[in-house]
Every structure is written in structure tokens, then in C-alpha cells.
Sequence to fold (259 residues):
Amino acid sequence: MTVSSTVSLNAGIEMPRLGFGTWRLRGRQCEQSVGWAIETGYRMIDTAAMYGNESEVGAAVRASGLPREDVVVTTKLAGRDHGRARDAAFESVERLGLDYVDCYLIHWPAGSGADLRVWSALERLQHEGILRSIGVSNYSVTQLEELLAASEVAPAVNQVEMSPFVQPRDVEALCHERGVALQAYTPLGGRASSLDDARLREVSERLGRTPAQVMLRWGIQHGAIVLPKSANRERIVSNAQIFDFELSKSDLASLDALG
Ligand code: A2P
Fold:
């Protein structure tokens, strides 16, 4: 596996196993960080209408000089826009300035159901080609099962919080069983203290890797696409160095015990 390794989505898209998360990155800092990520070799950028940074993400992708088809851009439908999904998707495309979105997700389910009405609107947009693939985020097993049973187009992705400290084991199993790509947000545990965990430190020191690299590698070996965010160039580079080592079964088991 290399930094450019991909997972084939049901929509025929090759989704990189490493993506760049952009939550909380704004303005110039966002554009600069996405630029560094692309320079480093990240080929998937994850944003959302809610993050307020789609314009900067799009500007950085355009400024990279890479052919449009070389970068996978994911964005998400905000909860307030469930009743106007079609307009909201076009607005995202407009803010990104990239003609189409590679992967468009329902950011959060509106309640306990699967949002089938919203899903049909996304199916139409995929059919029209403005969204190349569609998926969901923060869906439980019940919601994902409801969607899989009722939809014409199966969700390509379910993006959920996942790290050794937050393990959605049932969702992970269902995604793998049904061929839904599993994306891990907050893959570094969400708190600085996560990186100081004694067991994580023991594994990372023994392997000569950073705690962040070990956490990301744990996600990769669980079959997830990991989406670390950083505004720091060195950490952006270091977080991509996760394809040249492997965690042993016993290291995986020891990290599995953290969540
Ligand atoms: P920074 O932007 O200053 O690097 P997550 O992707 O799990 O949401 O984590 C993002 C947080 O983790 C950010 O606060 C980011 O801060 C920090 N972070 C990202 N990469 C690393 C790293 N390699 N080591 C320590 N902290 C990191």
C-alpha cells in the first residue's frame, strides 16, 4: 500500500485510503493546509457545507494544478438543507468551483430514520452527473440497513467517528459486509490526551512511529479510509507516512482494547 492506494467505490470511483480532513480550518489557513496536503500526496479532501470552507478547499484544489480528476473531493449536505437538497448540492458545487462533487454525503441523519426523501434527491443528482457518488455520515446500523433496503443506489460511503478510542464495531462490520466504504473522522481521537495514552505510546515507541501514525495505521488495518486534519505542514507530511509499516496482530489487539 502507498499514499495513493485506493478503495473502489460502488459508483466506480477510486477513493484514496488517506484523505485530508478540514473541519475547523478556515480562510487562508484552510487554503494553505489543503495545498500542503496535496503537495504531500493526499488525493482526497473532505469538507462540508457546515464547515464554511468549501470555497477555500476548491481554490486550493484548483491552485494545485493537478487535473481535476486526480483529486477526490467530498462535501456534505447540512441538516438545515434536508428540505432543499438539490439546491444545496448545486450551491456546494458553486462554492467549490469544481463543476462536480466526487462524493456527497448526508452529514447527519435528521432523526431516527434513514432520510429516504433526501436520498432520492441525491440519487437524481448522481444520475445527472453533478455528484459522482453519494453516501451518508453518522448513520447507525439501523439507519444504514433501512437505506440499503430501500434505495436504488446503495450508499458508497458511511463516514463515522472512529479511532482506537471510539470504535463503532457494529457499523464497521455492516459496512464491510455490504460493501459500503467506511470513512473514519476524528481518527486521532479528538483530544490531545489521546495521543499520550500509555499503551499507544508503548506501541509507537517500539515501532519508532508517532502515536498519530499508529492510530491512523490502526484505522487503515481496520479497513477504514482515514481523514486526519492538521494545519501544521510537518504533521500533514508525517500523518501520510502510514503505508510503510504494519501493526502486528498483538499490537492491533492491544489498541482494540482501548475502545
Ligand atoms: P494541528 O492542526 O495543530 O496539527 P482529528 O483529525 O482526529 O480531528 O485531529 C485533529 C487534531 O489533531 C488537530 O487539533 C490537529 O492539530 C491535531 N493533530 C493532527 N496531526 C497530529 C499529529 N501528528 N500529532 C499531534 N497532533 C496532531
